[in-house]
Amino acid sequence: MQEPKTYFIRTYGCQMNELDTEIMAGQLQKRGLTPSLDEENADLLIFNTCSIRDLAERKVMGKLGRMGRGDKKNSIIGVTGCMAMAKKDSLFRKFPHLDFVIGTNNITDLSHALDEVIHTKRQVFKTDDRFEENLDYLAAKRDHTVKAHVSIIRGCDKFCTYCVVPYTRGQEVSRPPESILEECKKLVDSGYKELTLLGQNVNSYGKDQPEWNCLFHDLLYKIDNIPGIERVRFLTSHPIDITRELMEAIRDLPSLCEFVHFPIQAGSSRILRKMHRIYTKEQYFEKVALLREIVPNVSLGTDIIVGFPTETEEEFQETYDAMREIRYSVAFIFAYSPRKGTPAMRWKDDIPEEIKLDRLQRLMNLQEKIMNEERSQMLGNTYEVLVERFNKDGKLLKGRTRCWKKVIFEGDASLIGTLPLIQVHSFSHQTLIGELNQIAESSPHCLSKEMQEVYKAGSLPVKR
User: Fold this and answer.
1) Alpha carbon of 417 to those of 138, 195, 298, 376, 438: distances in Å?
2) Which residues contact 322 (CB under 8 A, 6 or more apart)?
């Protein structure tokens, strides 16, 4: 088998998978390969997969099946990511045209796996259960020039009964703070304006390494001290690990955006217990109240699952009422689907599909109403926007506010990578539409008094 000259990676799933793709691309380019614009012309095809939702798996399985019936066997084909961990070598039995399967904890083995495939012509299978923190993050080939993802912790120890992540990503392993700071400094020096700290549960950072004396909020203070840093975000959180110290960091650190993904998953304490979320509805509401007391202008996001086994209509109504009361700015809502290998597979999936879809639609309708009301209240006000790129039409610029709202407006390419103030005059679906107010020539966090008055009750972020 010949050494490949070009590669194409198709990424499914979360931001962690996107970062893993960038790391693998760095390894391949270091090896001398060049990226291909489409899979049809690539010598090496990699499918970096997700197992969180059944739909994501089915998409990959269908794609691999079609490739086995096509003419792409001249290419080297590999599967990486969570599906590789969940299905392991059974993928070879179902898709004999695959050349390698590499799990989430083995992406550093990509080049060695390619050598083995090329020289032995045998299928290669590497899926270790535990992650060893030895990735060369600095070699990652980033797709974006303004925003970057930074991995700080991998794996999860929470074992929610519906979730495959502890089995596909393994135990929590924190990355040394010195390594994180080195990468963040390099990215800032290279012109990146926004860094998103990633982990299956970022709030657990450092708990597995008490000798470091560096928990998540400590790390945030260190990162905020990097000269020139503009914006910092983090994804994703488990409510049980959102501490007062973290809330105070969001309030006090100029770089830290006032958006917290605060997933409730369900509004019923009984369902939360069945999910093994390790908090009650009342405890969750107490933390939300404390966060809004400490950071009055905070914006919240959530994940919600409807139709979990044994969920009653009354328990669903508790979720509906929780969403109506908390008023999330962002919500990812899903109908439950059983995942092989999780504890929830032991239980009968007893909620009929039509009931799941009805509950899903009711929550989506409520969330759309909440977001439309929020956007209406934003009209006429001015917000700091990080300009990321041109919109799909190639005419309007696109960016996001600190609270994760997408904004489009007229402007030229010189504004990309800057943080102008944009006055919002309308919206379309989930996108705010505005016009350039002025460029923040001093600190992008020095906003007008008018902006500080917006959402006194707490929804949109404005630094004090």
Assistant:
1) 21, 13, 24, 27, 15
2) 264, 267, 281, 285
pLDDT for 340: 85
Q: Which CATH architecture has domain 137-374?
A: Alpha-Beta Horseshoe (3.80)
Tokens of 89: 């070598």
Tokens at residue 72, please?
A: 């792409």
CB half-sphere exposure, 29, CA atoms < 13 A: 15
What is the second-level CATH architecture of the domain 379-452? Beta Barrel (2.40)
Strand pairing class (259-261; 147-151): unpaired
CA distance 289 to 63: 46
Kindly report the CA angle at 387 between 384 and 393, in degrees rounded to 5? 130
Provide the CB-side half-sphere exposure for 362 (13 A, CA). Answer: 18
23 touches 51 (CB < 8 A): no
Domain spans of the chain, in order of start = 6-126, 137-374, 379-452
Please report the pLDDT score of residue 167 as a whole number.
Answer: 87
Whole-number pLDDT of residue 448: 32
Q: What is the pLDDT of residue 447?
A: 41
Task: List residues bridging with 306 in a β-sheet.
Answer: 335
Q: Are strands 6-11 and 44-49 parallel, antiparallel or unpaired?
A: parallel
Residue in the structure block whose two tokens are 């390099």: 186
Q: Which two tokens stand for residue 247?
A: 């809330």
Q: What residues contact residue 229 under an 8 Å CB cut-off, 6+ apart? A: 184, 188, 195, 223, 255
Give the C-alpha separation, 363 to 333, whole Å: 8
Q: Say which residues have a Cβ less than 8 Å from residue 196's Cβ, sequence separation at least 6.
A: 15, 147, 148, 149, 150, 232, 233, 234, 235
Question: Judging by DSSP bridges, how do beta strands 420-428 and 382-384 pair with one another?
Answer: antiparallel
Which residue positions in the chain have pLDDT lower than 70? 70-73, 132-135, 438-464
Q: What is the topology classification, in CATH, of domain 6-126?
A: Rossmann fold (3.40.50)
On whether the pTM is more than 0.90, the answer is no
